[in-house]
Amino acid sequence: MATPEFILRLRKHVGHELLWLTGVTGVVVDPDDRVLLHQRADDGCWAPPGGILEPGEQPAAALAREVAEETGVHVVPERVACIVTEQPWTYSNGDVVQILDITFRCRPSGGEIRLDRDESLDAGWFAPDELPEMSEALLRRVRLAREERGEAWYQPYGE
Description:
Blueprint: H1 5-14, E1 19-28, E2 35-40, E3 46-47, E4 50-52, H2 59-71, E5 73-85, E6 89-90, E7 96-111, E8 120-126, H3 136-146, E9 153-154
Parallel strand pairs: 1-7, 5-9
Antiparallel strand pairs: 1-4, 2-3, 2-8, 5-7, 6-7
């Protein structure tokens, strides 16, 4: 994944120290109940599309931008499905991040799968019972976005 310029500038000051970032994830569900996933270029893993908010960017707009960049599919965010803070993560270069993720359930509104190879090696639509292997955190985001619920899920206080 291309590292946003503002993060590269921050890293010049803080080195590999932990950065607190806000991320967005899009669980895009089509009329046939299939989920859009892409195979990330940075680690080869399958995941819903998403990324990091740029300074001043609104979460839903950032999410629509990220999905289009990574997959070529245009989306309309419909609701927030969950808000979670993930465990700190260390990249292979030693950079440490911790991400507050806002996951949106989205519907496709146009475009078609197109890979840029900078961020995605592959992409496709998957039936819920045919999802490729993903982390438990990502599977939870997909499950929560597919549920019919009126409120966003969050980690209950004290757990």
